[in-house]
User: What shape does this take?
Amino acid sequence: MMENRNIFIGRRSDGGNATVHFDKRGDSVKGRSRYFELIKCFGIWGIQGAGIVLLFFRSLWLCVLVSLATAIYGVITEKKRAKRRWQNQVSIEFREGLQGIAAALQAGYSMENALEESQKDLVLLYGEHSVLVPQMQRMSYELQLNQPIEEVFYRFGQLTQVEDVMRFAQVLHIAKRTGGDLIAITRMTADRISEKMEVKREILVMIAGKQMEAQIMKLMPLAIILYFWVFSPGFLDPLYRWEGRPVMAVLLLVYLAAAYWIDRISRIEI
Assistant: This one.
């Protein structure tokens, strides 16, 4: 039996060989769409970086250099955000999947058949773009290869790096060793995930107004500089000479630090 990042080879319960191909995340996002989003992000962040540097330094060559740096940083940041969004969607669908698995197990289905029944429910709920269905198909194949269910969910957690999945895999491992109630554990895990999501939703609603105020505060220094450019030409000219450049550099660093901490404070992790 052999396993790596892209392929899983083993033997089915009926004695035949089976090969399962899967990618690292198993999502259904097309490669072209992903590249388009990265290019779009590269352009937006590059323009933003160039605009900020132009306001603070009024230097075209420096705008070009900084725009490239900010564009690269923006792509890296967007990848992290996309991963968090994907993991959040996995967690949401995992809750629905666990409820379907628990219902199927209670009806007398085996775990392999319960996974297949849960896949049908997810397709009805989220359509062909479900991020969890490809992963559950892979897990069904692994169960056909006589893999222990706790190891199957553990590998699933390793691939997705979702905390809820990892904890369920750990609890499932303990339950299999001690003879716990699999149906009760599955339902309890789904309920805990639902409670956590509800708390997170309430927190996000409470701080939504403050997040909007924070975004406005991030734009205010730039708006003030632009105001002087338009309505008081020449007022800021001393700051754009060589003796004023260090002052603008310090102000830019202070602005970037404030913007960074605004984003950090408004990011809620549960």
In short: Strands lie at 2-3, 7-11, 17-21.
